[in-house]
């Protein structure tokens, strides 16, 4: 799984806004974005608030959100990585569990998936977490 967690992305800014204003929903109450380098497709510059629709809260400045992120960077990065990890676990639940009336497994490589899922759970124990994460490789599904 290749996910850039090193930079200050729009995902991290959205998480920071949600940390500042619990209950707000990105895409509903506010939208953050960032410029993209046309040649590389990489983020260019810091993310920014593109739209603010919340009636309950005045819009913070980009600088206020950036300062909140810097002051809480480790906790926010950890929450972001855990959300990615939890999504990967949820997306692979069916690989290692079956309903009671189903065959024992619909996946041939159950042990490989169990190992992968344990490696996902162990991501938070890696040295350097949450600033440096090595994501485990998903098992081959060609034989399934």
Topology:
Layout: H1 10-20, E1 30-36, E2 43-52, H2 62-71, H3 73-90, H4 93-96, H5 110-121
Antiparallel strand pairs: 1-2
Task: Jot down its keywords.
2 domains; alpha+beta; 144 residues; elongated; two-stranded antiparallel ribbon
Description:
The chain has helices spanning 10-20, 62-71, 73-90, 93-96, 110-121; strands at 30-36, 43-52. The radius of gyration is 19 Å and the shape is elongated. The longest helix is centred in the middle third of the chain and has 18 residues, at 73-90. It folds into two domains: 1-71, no CATH class; 77-144, no CATH class. It is α+β, with helices and mostly antiparallel strands. The chain contains five helices and two strands; from the N terminus they run αββαααα. Strand 1 (30-36) and strand 2 (43-52) form a beta hairpin. 38% of the residues lie in helices and 12% in strands. The chain has a two-stranded antiparallel sheet with strand order 1-2.
């Amino acid at each position: 799984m290749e996910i850039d967690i090193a930079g200050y992305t729009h995902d991290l800014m959205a998480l920071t806004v949600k940390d500042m204003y619990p209950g707000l929903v990105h895409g509903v109450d506010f939208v953050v974005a960032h410029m993209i380098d046309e040649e590389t497709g990489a983020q260019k510059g810091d993310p920014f608030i593109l739209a603010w629709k919340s009636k309950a809260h005045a819009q913070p400045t980009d600088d206020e959100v950036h300062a909140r992120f810097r002051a809480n960077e480790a906790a926010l990065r950890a929450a972001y990585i855990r959300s990615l990890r939890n999504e990967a676990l949820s997306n692979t639940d069916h690989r290692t569990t079956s309903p009671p009336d189903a065959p024992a497994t619909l996946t041939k490589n159950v042990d490989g998936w169990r190992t992968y899922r344990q490696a996902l759970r162990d991501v938070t124990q890696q040295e350097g977490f949450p600033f440096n994460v090595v994501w485990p490789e998903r098992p081959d599904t060609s034989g399934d």
